[in-house]
Amino acid sequence: MAKKKNQHFVPRFLLKYFASDNGRKLINIYNIKANQIIKSAPIRNQACKDYFYGKDLAIENGLQEAEDMASILINRMVNEKYIPLRLSADHYRLLLFTLLLYQRTQYAADDLTEATNKFFKRIYSKDPNLKETIDKVELKYKYPAMTSILLAFSVYDLAIDLKYKMIINNSYMPFIISDNPVIYYNQLMEQKNSYGSSIGIASKGLQIFMPLSPRNYIIFYDAKVYVVGYKKSDLIYISEIPDVISLNKLQAINSYKNIYFNNEIIGHRIDEIFKSVKQHRRKIKSMVVEHPMESKNENEKRALIQMSKKDIRCNLRLAFIRMFKSAKRYSLGSKVVHVRNEEICRLHIEFEDLVEKGRYKISQFPVFLRSKSFKIT
Fold first, then answer.
1. At what angle do helices 58-80 and 144-155 cross, to 10 degrees?
2. Which segments of 311-373 does DSSP mark as H helices, in order?
3. Quick one: CA torsion of 192, 193, 196, 198, rounded to 10 degrees?
4. In terms of C-beta density within 10 A (0-12 exposed, 13-18 middle, 19 or more buried), how is residue 337 classed?
5. β-pair partners for 260
6. Burial of 142 (0-12, 13-18, 19+ CB in 10 A)
7. pTM for the full model?
8. Distance between CA atoms of 86 and 369, rounded to whole angstroms?
9. pLDDT digits (tens, 9 = 90+) for 134-175
10. Which of 257, 256, 220, 264 is nearest to 18 (CA)?
11. What phi and psi values does residue 6 have, to the nearest 5 degrees?
C-alpha cells in the first residue's frame, strides 16, 4: 500500500479507546445500512478512505501533527481526569481538534457537496437558458474534505469563549462513538423553536459534544445560557443510566454509516438505541432558503439566499444541564441570527484582516488575543 494512502477521518487513537480487545486493534460495529452488528473488526479499516484529503499529503500530514498533540492531551484527560486551563495551549489544542474532527468526516464532506449543489441550483434555476437542464448538473469536489477542514481553521477562534467540562461515566453502561462523532446542538433554540439553523459556531446557546472514551465525554457550551454540573468543578460525574442513554442516542442520531462500541455494551442494545432514534436522523444535511427582498425597481427581483446546516432536534434532556432563568426569558424577536458573543465576532473580523495583511498567521489567534488583553467572562 502506498504511504499514507489509507487516510482516517476519525483518528485511530480515538477509536482505540472503544476497542473490543486488549491489544486495541479491534472494534465492534453496528452498520446502519445493513442493520448488522459486526464483532471485532480491524480498527485500521474503520472511518477511512483512500486519499480522502488528497494525494499530496499536505492536509494528511497537518492533521497527523494535530492528532499527535491531541492524542497526548486526550490520554491525559482520560487517565488523569485532567482539564486544560482556559486560554492555555491545551485549551486551543482541544478546541481545534474538536472543530477539525467535526469538519473532516465523510459526513462533513458530503454535506459540503450537497450544500454547494443546492446553492448552485437555486441561483441558476432563475436563468431561462439553464432552467431545463439545471437538475441534470451535479457539482463535485475532488477532495471536499480539504475545503471543509480549511473552514474549521478559519472559524475556530469564534468558539474560544465556550466553556468546557468533562463528563465521567460511572454507570454500568459505556459510551459509544460513531463515524461522525462530534455533535453540535442547541437546547436553547430548540426550546424557543427558532427558525432555520442554530448550530453556527458563533450561535447563542451552542453546545458541542464529543466522546473521548467509553467513560469520558467532553462538552463545550455557552456559559451564559447553561449551568452544567457543579459550578466549582470542571468534572461531571454521572451514574444515572438515562443520561448515558441520552448521550448514546445523540451519537446514534449523528452517526453516518457506522456506530462503534466495545464489549461492555451488549450488541442488541445498539440496535435498540438506533431504532429508538431513527425518526430524529436527518434526511437532508443542508438547507438553502430564499427570502424575497424589497427592491426600488419594480422590474427587479431581489432575494437573500440563506444556506445552513440541518440541525438535530430530539428534545435532548440531560440531568446535569439546566438553563439560566435569563436564558429562558430570552426573546428571539425578529432576528434570524442570534450571536453569542459580539466582541469575539468583532475580534475575529479584525484578526482576519490582519492575517490578510501578513501581520499574523491563521494559527496565531491566541497571540492576537493576548495583544488585546482579552479575557473570557
1. 60
2. 325-328, 342-356, 365-371
3. 40
4. middle
5. 29, 177
6. exposed
7. 0.93
8. 13
9. 888 888 888 888 888 888 888 888 999 999 999 999 999 999
10. 264
11. -85, 100
